[in-house]
Every structure is written in C-alpha cells, then in structure tokens.
Amino acid sequence: MGEVVALLLQYGYAAMFGLLALGMVGLPVPDELLMLAFGGLAAQGKYHFLGALSVTFLGSMTGMMLSYGIGRLAGKPALHKYGKWIRLTPARIQASEKWFGKYGPWGLLFGYFVPGLRHLCSYLAGTTALPISRYVSFASLGAALWCTTFLWIGHACGMHWDQVVVLLEPVTKRLGVITLLIVLVIAGIIALRKKWWKVR
C-alpha cells in the first residue's frame, strides 16, 4: 500500500485515474483502500475533494467501460479461458453469473461494493449484450455512489487516514460488504421516512 500512496503523492490525479481504471479491469489494485487514501490526502489539503471525486469517477468508469467492451467483443468463452490472468477464477465467475442473473443491471449498481463482483458484472453485462444505455446508466450511478462513499470515509478520517488504511487493509473485502449494508440501511430509512410523511 505504501508504494500506491507514493504514486499518488508523486503523480496525483493522473495516478489515481490510471490505478482505478486498471483495478476495474481486474488487475490487483486495492481500490477501496486507494480511495480512502485519496480522501485522506484531500482532507490534508493535498487535493481538492471535488477534483478527487471527478477523477475517481472517471477512472472507475473508464475501467468499467473497458471491461464491458471486452466482454461484448470476446464473449463468455474467452472470459472462462483467460479470466485467471485478471483474478477472474471459475468459482468467482460462476458466483457472479448467479448474482447478475438474479439482479441484472441492479447488480452493477450494488456490485461495486463487493470486491471481485464489480469487475465481473461489467464483463457479464458485455457478454449478455446488455444495451449500452442501460449499462452506462446503472454503472455510472454505482460508480458515483461507490466513489463518494469511500472518498468521504477517507476525508472524514482526516489526518488519521493512514492509520485507518493499515487497520482496514486485512479486511478490505468485508469493508465493502459492510459499507454496502450501511448504504442500504440509510436508503431504507430515507424511503420509510418519505412514505411516513406522505401518510401524515
């Protein structure tokens, strides 16, 4: 993780964009920890929060669009044959196919918060020829929600972001799932409150 932070400090927004794009394609980049670090650096005044949010969004969407394009052009057989080179094991592909088959485009929205799943959902959207307009709509909404959440957490940690990253590095997969659950609970509370006010 230290090498990644060094890249961020040296190359700034360009490094963040490139690393996230590569991470979304499936290369071994610690996406959540990367954004926590970027949010923390923004809190220290090294970067502007809105600039960091824009770059992380564009980086993640670039990677997602590349994944979708590869899935659309190469198809599912290529995913099973070459997926191992980008951490897409047969077991992971099978689990993601079930998820995508059950939730469809909504899997793109919430799959961002589950490491491994967010990479595969884009490939599967391509292999199943999901219309590009629907793909972009769900993927961009998911990217905005995911980037804002983790950048905000890093920003909220402020001067202590590096300590938080060290603590969370061993449990990064659980972190994504826990964050997703928190987001869903908050969304549910807001929906219930709106419904309650309408009844009144």
From TrEMBL:
It comes from Paenibacillus lacisoli. Keywords: Membrane, Transmembrane, Transmembrane helix. Belongs to the DedA family. The chain crosses the membrane at residues 7-27, 47-71, 135-155, 175-192. This is DedA family protein. Residues 29-155 form the VTT domain. It comes from the Bacteria. Pfam families: VTT_dom. The keyword Cell inner membrane does not apply.
